[in-house]
Every structure is written in C-alpha cells, then in structure tokens.
Design a protein that fits this description.
Elements lengths: L1 H17 L17 H15 L8 H30 L21 E8 L5 E11 L6 E11 L10 E6 L7 E10 L3
Parallel strand pairs: 3-5
Antiparallel strand pairs: 1-2, 1-4, 2-3, 4-5
Length: 186
Amino acid sequence: MAEQDTGEFADVAPEAANEPAPQPVAPREPVEVLPPRERRQRARALKASRVPRRPPRTPEERHAERLAERRRMAELRRRERHRARARAGAAPSATPVTPPREHIPRVQKTRQGLVVSDRADKTITVRIDIARRHRRYERIVHTTRTLHAHDERNDARIGDTVIVRESRPLSRTKRWRLVQVVERAQ
C-alpha cells in the first residue's frame, strides 16, 4: 500500500517542483478616501485629458458652424414633414400651405372692430372679433381682443363699427389710432 501512495504523489511532486515559490506579499499603500465631489472632479479631469482638444475658433467661425447646423436640421425636418404628408396621402405641393408672415416696415396693420367704451377723453376701447380655424382640430375658434385707440375728435360712440390703424405708442396702453367710423350705432 505504501508503494501505491508514493506512486500517486510521485506524479504530483514533479509538477509542484516546477512552479515558482510564492513571493512574499508586499504591504499595499493606503487607499486615499476621497469625498464624492473630489472624486467627480478627478474623474472629469481624467476624462477631459483623454479627449483631443479642438483648435480655438473665432466667434465668426462658431457662428458659421451654428448656422450650417441649423440649416442642416431644417432640411432634415423639411424632408421628414414631406415624407409624413406623402404617407398621409396629401399631394406634395411646391409652395407651402401658409406663406410665412413677414414684417413689412412702414406698413401699419389695420383692424375693424366695435367700440365698447368711449368714456376716456380722446380714447376709445375697440373689441376685435377674430374667427380662425384651429390648426389641429379644424374647428372655427372665436376669440376677442380689446385695444385702446386714439380718437382725436371724440367722434366714435359705443356700438359704432370703426377701423383703427397701428401707430407709435401714444400712452401706456394706446398703440392704435382711429381711421374712420364705418357704421354708426342705432
């Protein structure tokens, strides 16, 4: 039996002899315990050091890049809207459905409305009734807006239908001027 035992260990012994002896473990340096804020700052600094830096650019170059990016994104949106309309079955049109609103300098807006108050001297309050189609729900939506208009001769009375035109600021609330009385109240 002793021979069998030595035979089993005889196979293992030469392999163990070939392995290097274990090295003594050196004491580790103490790990620095950092507060979370300091840890984040160091992580950001390490990450920033790995990212290649871009050369400094002038404000004009940055502005040009920004405009180019905006044009690119606008083109992508336009294409996507065109695809969505094609999927919905609408015929593609060369011109947009609603033209863009542009401000034309030196051309004042004119509105027609109903005088709801003429109590103040040389001032009338005009109610503008607006009926428009809702963009999503396609229903007619009625809204009203009141504005103050300058009436130099105190000509308009309550219930009159008047036309007012946009003007320079005449007071804190007056930005309109009476043009004419279209229809007198009964």
